[in-house]
Amino acid sequence: MLIIPPTLLPSMMAAITKVATTVGPMIAKYAPIVIKTLGENLPKMIQLVEAVSLAANVLKPNDKVEELGAKAMAADRKPEDFEQINDYINYLRNEVEVDEATLSQDPIDKTVRQAIGTSIALKALGNELNTDISLPFLSKVSELGIESKVILEIIKSYAKSGLNPDDVEAYINDELNLDESDKHSDLIAEAYHKAYPSMTTQEIEQAVMKDF
User: Fold this and answer.
1) How many other C-beta atoms lie within 10 A of the C-beta of residue 150?
2) Which residues of the chain have pLDDT under 70?
3) What does the pLDDT read at residue 57?
4) 206 to 98, 135, 141, 175, 211: CA distances (angstroms)
5) pLDDT tens digits for 12-45?
């Protein structure tokens, strides 16, 4: 769903294209998808991505995706220069300096930094969990206010299940057939159990019904 005013998109894409050689082809390709998919939901998504990445030990407590994006745009090296994207994040964290006071607060520039940083974190999270992170899934669950450790377990469960996490919205809206709906319900319940091992089956069922 595209919520960002279409008139701003060309400027954002142009800004990402300008730094493509610095941030590298993977991030330059992914960041526009982040902007187009998330639109005005990006601020909520940033909080979610930071929290889930922290729970997965991909980011540290002081890491902020906008700062990662700013550092990526100022860096001499890109993700493709490293064997693992976590090594690239460590490089940005420890070796690249940016003066936050001098960063442009223009909405376009700020969104581009956020999109690039979010892309880096999501790629690292996907690498850690050995799966592609579904943007539609994250966008939908970010609206639900679910705890980050539960979302992390749901992502892990989907990665193993073969079910499509993009179908979460259809599940929430009761648009799946009964068999498919039951599969998603069981998967989500399993994720809650892993996140909260002490919860009873009834408590888990209530939590799933409340949150989804």
Assistant:
1) 22
2) 1-6
3) 94
4) 46, 26, 17, 21, 9
5) 888 888 899 999 999 999 999 888 887 777 888 8
pLDDT at 197: 96
Q: Give the ranges where 19-131 is alpha helix by DSSP (H).
A: 20-23, 25-38, 42-55, 65-74, 85-95, 107-129
Please state, in angstroms and rounded to a whole number, the distance separating the CA atoms of residues 127 and 30: 15
Say what the pTM is. 0.89
d(CA 24, CA 26): 6
- In the chain the first and final C-alpha atoms are separated, in Å, by 20
Burial of 184 (0-12, 13-18, 19+ CB in 10 A): buried
Under a CB-based contact definition with an 8 Å cutoff, are residues 12 and 108 in contact?
yes
